[in-house]
Task: inverse folding
């Protein structure tokens, strides 16, 4: 897919970010706004200690329509109890007041330290006047959601008259399960919420859900898509392909910039019984500490590959017909 | 359980080890012999690329009687195809000839590099005359099976008239699944093979199967028990308790001496629905890279504990009634 050299927003989307003092100097607040109502869908972490923004987000997304995403970094509002949920609601209300929409049309995200109360007063004050800062550059918003990411991540591509734009952050505590870290997709294509939901899940399963930096699943993972329709209808199959391609590219950007990462490891599983087993085996390889140390040390070790495949005890593995390649070189043929 | 200050063997068991040139100078061959037939049981790795010694061992243990365990370190005889299996059989035959028993009464183990042919000629020559070296010190045998272990591991205790002795090696590629690395248990208690099998599985499930150094499951894991009966019958319940206690102590020795390990992490899960969920949650904690780095850095982080518990999506987790302690200090009460 031909991604733009410099990411742009679809028609009607803009964003802004600020430092409001949650971090010493870096941006810590981001606002993404559609000038008209957008159909929306989202998937969230399956971690059983979801943050307050995830609990509220599941409720918000049921409406299927959003005007904005409002996010802060530094503090995740996780393990903060009833008060945390109230803070998440106040956060949505503060952005809604600034934009002039209903709080139910604002999806909120928080990322950062777990177990610390959200500085909600600072955020309520901080969002005031932010509407005046809105720009059409997605990098501006990406800057506001960074934690230990080394650079802001945004991508975009054109699909006929429509544009699709991805903004995300990753880094540590990353093995998304049915979701990802914070990843937002914006498009001006005209698609309804059920279609977005179906297409987003399909794309996420093949991309963000196969990502692992450290095999640890965050409590804040959120992937949302907003479609404001300003570019009119699109071919759904083409949109699905483009959506998946952009999610895959963003997945690799997140993996490359994982906390402490020096290498990107891609695995390809062929000939497995079904997609579930292929994904299980590929994940076993990328999550194995002995495979990671092998890649880091640039020391190909077929025994570790065998081990990581063989420990998938719930998959059908036939040693005598198993072969393996590293960078195109066959290192194992028919089991040895 | 009162372990002996210096490990001893039960009546009728002796061992020897040698350097035969598989390693530059360290011991690389070990022979454990009972002077009379012993009832025996064993569990092996569930990795789907089992080594040739594991494939042969599953066949051997069906007889339920052993005279000896014969093991080499440095080369694991894994991913070596039909020839590897033939080498494992030749290894059993060579030890049997030296001892004067049937090859079916010798359990063989190999540990070390995967995918390299076993130097079977060297081993066949190396075992000759080894019977003359047999001593009653289990440390001698433990030395012969070391890979990157920093010291030889053996334990023993008395149970009435009987003695139970454990010899094991661990280090890397360690998250046993229905077995462990190489761990041998010797006793002069009189117990039949079915009882040994039942008690060994019970002990291993609660001990070696809960061990993790690096979350990677070896292709060679083997845990065997030999009971030669020379001390007469024992109370089975007392024997089970002692067997489990020794396996637990050995599990902690293996964890403490894990490759690169500087800390021992013990987790206790309480109030879970059943034992399966308790084990699942405890394993999620010890295998989490973010928990490991927290312990290594001595930086208690409640968010990482929540995360590791919450990512057990197949367990019942109720955040509002979840509490956590680190070294006896409550760090989380009722979810936050």
Result:
């Amino acid at each position: 897919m031909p991604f733009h050299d410099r990411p742009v927003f679809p028609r009607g989307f803009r964003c802004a970010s600020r430092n409001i003092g949650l971090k010493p100097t870096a941006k810590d607040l981001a606002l993404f706004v559609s000038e008209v109502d957008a159909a929306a869908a989202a998937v969230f972490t399956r971690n059983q200690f979801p943050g307050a923004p995830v609990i509220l987000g599941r409720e918000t997304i049921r409406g299927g329509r959003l005007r904005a995403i409002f996010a802060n970094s530094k503090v995740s509002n996780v393990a903060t109890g009833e008060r945390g949920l109230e803070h998440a609601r106040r956060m949505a209300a503060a952005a809604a007041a600034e934009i002039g929409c209903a709080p139910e049309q604002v999806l909120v995200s928080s990322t950062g330290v777990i177990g610390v109360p959200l500085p909600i007063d600072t955020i309520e004050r901080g969002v005031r006047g932010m509407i005046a800062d809105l720009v059409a550059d997605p990098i501006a918003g990406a800057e506001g959601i960074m934690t230990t990411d080394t650079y802001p991540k945004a991508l975009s591509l054109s699909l006929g008259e429509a544009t699709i734009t991805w903004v995300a952050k990753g880094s540590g505590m990353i093995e998304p399960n049915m979701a990802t870290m914070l990843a937002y997709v914006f498009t001006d294509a005209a698609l309804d919420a059920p279609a977005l939901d179906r297409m987003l899940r399909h794309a996420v399963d093949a991309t963000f859900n196969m990502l692992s930096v450290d095999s640890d699943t965050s409590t804040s993972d959120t992937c949302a898509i907003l479609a404001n329709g300003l570019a009119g209808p699109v071919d759904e199959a083409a949109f699905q392909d483009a959506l998946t391609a952009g999610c895959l590219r963003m997945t690799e950007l997140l993996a490359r910039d994982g906390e402490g990462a020096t290498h990107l490891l891609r695995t390809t599983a062929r000939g497995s019984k079904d997609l579930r087993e292929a994904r299980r085996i590929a994940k076993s390889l990328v999550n194995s500490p002995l495979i990671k140390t092998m890649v880091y040390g640039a020391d190909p070790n077929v025994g570790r590959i065998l081990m990581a495949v063989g420990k998938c005890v719930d998959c059908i593995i036939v040693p005598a017909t198993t072969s393996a390649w590293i960078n195109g070189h066959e290192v194992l043929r028919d089991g040895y």
Observations:
- Chain B touches chain A through 47 residues (CB under 8 Å).
- The first strand of chain B starts at residue 13 and ends at 18.
- Strands of chain B lie at 13-18, 29-44, 65-75, 106-113, 153-159, 162-168, 182-190, 222-233, 324-326, 329-332.
- The longest helix of chain B spans residues 236-256.
